[in-house]
UniProtKB/TrEMBL annotation:
Pfam families the UniProt entry points to: PqqD
Keyword Signal: no
Lineage: Bacteria, Pseudomonadati, Pseudomonadota, Betaproteobacteria, Burkholderiales
Pathway terms, separated by semicolons: Cofactor biosynthesis; pyrroloquinoline quinone biosynthesis
Example of a GO MF term: quinone binding
Name used for this protein in its record: Pyrroloquinoline quinone biosynthesis protein D
Amino acid sequence: MTAWTDDAQPALTSIYRMQWEEAQQCHVLLFPEGMIKLNGPAAEILQRCDGKTSVAALVADLERTFGESDLHADVLEFLEQAHGRHWIR
């Protein structure tokens, strides 16, 4: 389990590539053995995991973009799950 801090800068693991898949009508993570279909919130978070954007900035951007507040805990929970699946580092 990784304790994500607000200054951490998550990034996709190099084995994955994220893209919009027209046939699936969703974002997907592509990797050599297959494809993972992403729901909307997962895609929004992973699009911001560029290795340069801090967790705090990522959360602030999501809250601003969607007019929501208190997304910090939900984003951290997703980051933990994504890290556990080796999608991000």
